[in-house]
Amino acid sequence: MPFLPAARSCRKPYTCLPMSPSLLFTTLFTAALVLGLILKLWLTSRQVRYVAQHRAAVPAAFAQTITLAAHQRAADYTLAKSRVGVLETAWSAVVLLGWTLLGGLDALNQALLHWIGGAAHGLWQGLALIACFAAIGALLDLPFTLWQTFRVEQRFGFNRMTLRLWLADTLKGMALAVVIGLPLAALILWLMGAIGPWWWLWAWAVWAAFNLLLMLIYPTFIAPLFNKFTPLEDQALKQRVSALMARCGFAAKGLFVMDGSRRSAHGNAYFTGFGAARRVVFFDTLLKQLDPPEVEAVLAHELGHFKLRHIARRLALMAGLSLAGLALLAWLMRQAWFYTGLGVTPNLLPALGGDVPNSALALILFM
């Protein structure tokens, strides 16, 4: 029996056949996906049970100001949104699995490579891959968006949006994505292929500058494409709000009212932009529903984030995380197991004209 000694020398086959990096990465990814899904569903189920158990009575602290009917309506609204959220969470996990281990992204990439070409058209193929991925993802999320707006929000009397207005908003959003998003993606892809191993520093600088520019142009150029903004005319409220901002050390270019009632009955207040572009915005629904002291309290909550430097800290944190993330991506995109472990065949083509064929694939997988 000539094979007997060899068999005896490896009594535990798994010690002789170590797991490949690709298989290990697949295992870790799958475990993270499953555990994340379980955690989200568990937390949601706890929230649903708690709300349902306390639906029958108004909390003692609010018993004098909130009616039982209003409390139960709020509970029912929370439960309805949570149930849709459970389905959306599960669907998102299925879609992620479909894009990765089930081969969706790989099939899309191979189809575009066949249609557009390989390394000679690397930048264009990468842009097409990102655009198609985003468009398909939006279509897959569309049923939940429509259900949330025209079923849940409509059922509880919050939705004011017509199908025509929703379609107009969607088309405007798509146009902005093409006009702003595609040039930014093209610049990042070019940097990934043309700058060399330190491309991630340049890409981070571009990303940081883009976010600062967006904060400047959003209040005056982008937001007015969707809503109408008029100066606040209530002088009593204006004085009250101005005094609050002075106490917080917050300066704004102006106080505006937004026609939020065109889309929703929900009310809110916020501030946006920075420097000369900073402005405070009130939903017209908020001004109709609340008295001036209550409106002041809503804005005070938002200004609290400014006073406690939450926004500055968040910006600094996001800048640091994006820098570290891009540095990690610069290493991962050179590892074959990063692609194969997520069900994608890397574009095994030589770089041509400064375009690295795997750039768009790496960006999508990493994000």
Helix tally? 14
State which percent range the strand residues make up.
under 5%
How many strands appear in the DSSP assignment?
Answer: 4
Order of helices and strands: HHHHHHHHEHEEEHHHHH
Regions with pLDDT < 50 over 5+ consecutive residues? 1-10, 350-355
Spatial strand sequence of the major β-sheet: 1-2-4-3
The percentage helix is: 55-70%
Sheet with the most strands, sense and barrel status: 4 strands, mixed
- Global geometry: globular
Structural class: mainly alpha
- Provide the residue-averaged pLDDT: 89
How far apart lie the N and C ends? 55 Å
Global Rg: 26 Å
Outline the structure in words.
It contains 14 helices and 4 strands. It has helices spanning 4-8, 13-16, 21-53, 68-99, 104-116, 122-155, 163-194, 199-222, 235-248, 284-289, 292-307, 310-332, 336-340, 359-366; strands at residues 229-231, 255-258, 269-272, 279-283. Strand 3 and strand 4 (279-283) form a beta hairpin. The model is unreliable at 1-10 and 350-355 (pLDDT under 50).
Based on the model shown, name its key terms:
367 residues; mainly alpha; four-stranded mixed β-sheet; 14 helices; 4 strands; 4% strand; globular; disordered N terminus
Give a brief outline of the structure.
The chain is mainly alpha-helical. It is 68% helix and 4% strand. Helix 6 runs parallel beside helix 14 (359-366).
Present the secondary structure layout:
Blueprint: H1 4-8, H2 13-16, H3 21-53, H4 68-99, H5 104-116, H6 122-155, H7 163-194, H8 199-222, E1 229-231, H9 235-248, E2 255-258, E3 269-272, E4 279-283, H10 284-289, H11 292-307, H12 310-332, H13 336-340, H14 359-366
Parallel strand pairs: 2-4
Antiparallel strand pairs: 1-2, 3-4
